[in-house]
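>> received
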Amino acid sequence: AKWFNDWSLDDGCRTILNPIEDICDVRTPGGKLVYQYLKKPKKIPRCGQCKDKLRGILPARPQERSRLCRRKKTVKRAYGGVLCHKCVKEKIVRAFLIEEQKIVVKVLKAQQAGTKAKK
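>> returned
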């Protein structure tokens, strides 16, 4: 804010020297010029893995988010509201490939045991 030393802002409801709180001049219908406190900008939630913006989730301040319904805070998917769809897909594919690899190793061991038994 530009008016750190302007004591006319001291209405008792906010701290004056907090640089995060922004104010702007607004002309009222009565012709008076008053200060209006602006709220901090809302942040769009981001993916925990790739830091991409999460789609389908309402941007909101923390206190406002606590009052939102569940539908606006998450998406109906595994890791909904935490990871983006790309990261979830990657996670599923990786888990599938690891399981496939375990099966291949098990089959190879069984084949080797079978060939040793024949000899």
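>> The first helix runs from residue 62 to 66.
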